[in-house]
Amino acid sequence: MRTPATETPLRRPVITARATATFEAVGRSVATARAFVRDTLQGWGFSDIVDDAVVLTSELVTNAVVHAGTAADVLCLRTEAGVRIEVADRYPERDVPLQSSAAQAANPDREGGRGLMLCGALATSWGVEYSSTHKTVWFQLDLPERPAGTRSAGPALPVDALPVAETRVRVAVVQIDRAGAISSWNDDAEALFGHPADQVLGKQLTDLAAWPHTPGTGTGIAEALQLSRWEGSYGIRATDGRVIPVYASHLRVRDAAGDPSTVCLLVRDHERAVLQTTLRASAGDGGGGSGEARGSSADPFEVFIGSPAPDDLDGLLQRTVERARDMLDGDAAYLLLATDDETELEVRASTGLPSARQRFARVPVEAGTGRYGSARMPAVHEDLTVVPGAVPLLAGTGMRSVVNVPLKVEGRLTGSLGVAAEAAGRYTNEEALRLQFAADRIALAVERARLTELERLRRGSLSFLVEASDLLAGTLDRDQTLALMAQMTVPTLATWCAVYTVADQASEPELSYVLHEDEDRIDGLKTLLGKVPPPEPVPTPGARVWSAPSDAAHSAALRSSLRSLGLGDASHSASGPGPSLATASAVAGETVVLPLVARNRVIGMLTLGKPSDEHFRQEILELAEDLSRRAALALDNSRLYSERTAISQSLQRSLLPPELPEVPGVEVEVIYRAAGEGNEVGGDFYDLFPIRDGAYGFAIGDVCGTGPEAAAVTGLARHALRLLAREGFGGPAVLERLNAAILDEGARSRFLTLLYGELWPQDDGSALLKVVCAGHPLPLRLRQDGSVEPAAEPQPLLGVMDDLELYEETVTLDPGDVLLCVTDGVTERREGPRMLGDDGLTDVLTTCTGLTAGAVASRVLRAVERFAAEPASDDMAILAMRVPEPQAEPA
């Protein structure tokens, strides 16, 4: 039976590739399934839809392995339109919660069916199929339509307004074969990037190309090479490791044999006009596009509006500012987009400004009072020196006149577009009207591209947070948690990261972990941060700017410059070497601090930094804030776990004797293995202590259960045994009084099996023992002839009955004899249905004739460990006592 979740009839697409995997019904399978789907789709070149596929797979596999409790089969099918993923479980009787759209909207917080709500929101189509043994939920994700290429154009300009090339313009011609390998590399490519042809031929272009690394970025270099026509920007790594920004024009062709390849033309990014496709003027424009660049409101404006938008927001914005600058013959132009609350504008593109340091910088919408103080209204500033600070973005750039207009969609402010010139009085209200008219025409396209990018970024962020949560939940080790926090942020969210921890409210923040995307700069960064006072542990949520690292970096750079000129003073030199210029530039950008708050307490700070005066975009800061909340809880959990582990280990050590006394004439060896994870106190214990001259007491016991209650009984038993034995009570009296003390504990009491004995070494080389075995595995005696026999009779365990009548038994160990005492963790060692048991232990002990007490205990431990492949699930204590044979006197 098939129950599709959509009205469209199910139609199987044409399958071009498939990948399948089965995941066990355990929690870790969810993360493994996500990794399988991500690797599969990236291998197919489906980066555009990989984040949505990972999120949906995570929900459906969770339903299978966690809620349905069965294994999950994941099948990935590549189709001509995209990908189809099927998740099947082995619980067909379990109903799939289905609700109408109205019901879902009325109850968005319901617990059931959230995975299917995500399918309805993210998938192109989805459905459910039933069989007699399986239930399969499938979803289809189609690849987004992308234009085959992009075009751009600029107006005709006077000769003196043309840009100046540093050297002759070089055009690198690179040909890429169908496998993505470089098959042709011309001389200009070698001159631009430094790689000789013989060193790059046959290499993948992706090995040299630097593509933007941002959550949600869908298009990659591999996808760009598959398009029939593409233009855009990326970077090429030169021989010295620098990334050279280039503008590329790709054309996909095929040779006579029909094999496809891609021809790539590359120029320096600031020379992009050489390759940008120019729009031809229509016949109605006067023929051939030879109109004047200025003075005509038609030609430049039509060129500005007429070009189709590229397939990415950054490309659209960059081309917009370039054409705005050309249209008004300006020296610089910039475009800002409004934040969600429309209180700030974020710099997204600029041209003609001194550097890219303003990217993602934020300025307030309302910069002051009056008509020129708000980005919501057009503004013309004839001379910025008269009104300093009117346009914060242009401070210190040398620009004097500027025209600024808002981008609005349905009356809502979505951005701001400005053109500036170095000369004063260049712009009037006429230019403002022309720019406003152009901005009105382009605003809708910009807003559509912005929303598309924002949606892609948020889906990528969701996938990022899902995987980050799994990684953080997978460890309780504090150092590993700190490392994960840094590794998840660098380089995805920031260039470098530092984690400060706060032990308590009275303690200063401590620098606990530092990471930089360039490993060679980690030590220098750590040194620099060590000289800067740590940020204040303020619990206020959200990111706040921290200027101390960049101030210290600028000071270090200044001192280094002075020393290079011979002007440095001795005090600076005496303080030791400071951070290098490379390290100083690495933290010269924006630095933000996010508090790590867990259980209403600041436990640390997550510090993120950018190099070279770069700024964080608002979406990245919001993602970092989400991550910091999860990381804070994981870090606090690791702290609590570490504290609990330390307490448990300390308590465990207090329940065992610190050291064993030397017993004259008797070899004694003890091996103790706790089976807990480090945070559990075991119930097994042992003891060996002197009672009086020539007499020693020994004990080995096992308290039912683990944890604090068992530890209380263990401590009571060990200390009561010593006290009662030294008061002169015999074995039965000691155990009877201990039994009464355990019963007095009431509900906190626990059953206790105990083997207690007293040992007297004899002058003839033997040893006399008196033992009482209260419900404990019987001690075994190994004689010199290899025979093994129990050394005591079983008696009732402690903590059950009030009136116990116990008796002691006397055992004599002759020279060469061994007495072996163990807890049930040894005899109850299991491998499937098999158990070592008393007989198995006896067989092991028969092979120990002639061995020392230490060798006997070690052989027993090895036999127990090798009996099963899985680690032991119960505590083990092994006590071996041996009377050595007399040494032969030398002749």
Automatic annotation (TrEMBL):
Sequence segments annotated as region (Disordered): 530-549
Organism domain of life: Bacteria
InterPro entries assigned: Bact_Sigma-Reg, GAF, GAF-like_dom_sf, HATPase_C_sf, HATPase_dom, PAS, PAS-like_dom_sf, PAS_fold
Record keywords, A-Z: Hydrolase
SMART domains: GAF, PP2C_SIG
Stretches assigned to the PAS domain: 173-205
Record-given protein name: SpoIIE family protein phosphatase
Organism: Streptomyces lycii
Lineage: Bacteria, Bacillati, Actinomycetota, Actinomycetes, Kitasatosporales
